[in-house]
Amino acid sequence: MARQIASWLSVMAAVTLVALIFSPVNAAQTQGGKSACITCHEKVTPGIVKQFLSGKMGKTMDCSSCHGKEHMSANDVAKVKLPTPDTCATCHAERVKEYREGKHALAWTAMKAMPMITHQPMAVGGGDLKGCSACHKVGEKAASELKRYGSGACDSCHTRHSFSRAEAKDPRACRTCHMGFDHPQWEMWQTSKHGSIWEIEPTTGRAPTCQNCHMPDGKHDVITSWGFLALRLPEDDKQWMENRVTILKAIGVLDEAGKPTERLDAIKAAKVARLDKASFDKARAKMIDACTQCHSRSYAETNLNAGDEVIREVDQVFADSIRTVKGLYDDGILVKPKGWKYAPDLLQFYEAQSAVEQELYLIFLEYRQRAFQGAFHMNPDYMHWYGWAKVKEAAARIQEDARRMRQEHKKM
């Protein structure tokens, strides 16, 4: 009996502690039924208070539940705790676990792994949330990099301070990051038949949204079969595998002898490529399951396989263009830029030092992306005219420039 009482008391103590931590108002910090946080911020940041109180969390929690209780005045703002996924996991453990299994959690790691980022001013590509970091902040980061509000992760989709679930389920929540130059998924989807039906019937559920396909059942482990770089290993098609090796050398993942470099670990860590058959097949099976909610399995498989074929065809043109530029380096017509370990180095992006390499970068990050992403987002115009056609145009310019450079080099 004594043990049962002791056990019961310990459980009640735990429940009481949780209730105190997540109580909407702390009795020692109330003024007229409102917490001290709310009372103060109604004057300082009324918009934030209005948003917070409009959401579900505002009905059951206080600001201090996420931001801590150390900040008590305008003079100690630095003591405010900046929430992290661990903060959210206190209540949403399963969702945070799923998030950490997907690509969004690795977005910050992927950005930091790009050699190009080291050349950028802080405001453009670093941590000031104006360029790359403004979207890649959805990824987890070290505590030392949590320097300002909005540098968290979950609030990239469930924006502050209402943290609306309905907002995060709306496809328009995705478009700030998934649009534009290198990954215009929003534009592709919006102007596809799927997106057109959604705009006509936004509430019927007849057309799939980003979340239906990439977050079925609300699961947060967002991942795609091909990865951001549309690269996978191994490849059964011999010619395609040779082209893949050429591409991997051009991004510095393989050295000239075809052996793995230190960048392979970065690619693995960021999951921007599929480096084993099992991981590709798992993600592909997940997408087929999503497609078969509306289509037959054979129809889904046929369409996804057609997307694979687009990548194969683009990779042939891409690899040939890489070999042309590599030949210019091999023959001393192009000289490896200072500080570059690999040349050509596609992960330097627009920091390329020659016109032919700028064209190669555009094939890599803009045209090739649009070709394969357009195919998988069921947008024929993006696949063909913004993708495939541009790949061919750029490849022709590379060949022409290479011939001119060789002729000029002979005259020197």
From TrEMBL:
The highest taxon in the source lineage is Bacteria
InterPro entries, per database record: Multihaem_cyt_sf, Multiheme_Cytochr_ET
Residues annotated as signal peptide:
1-27
Please report a single Pfam family linked to this protein.
Multi-haem_cyto
Q: Give TM regions.
A: none
Q: Which UniProt keywords apply?
A: Signal
Name of the protein described by the UniProt record: Cytochrome C
What is the native source organism of this protein? Pelotalea chapellei
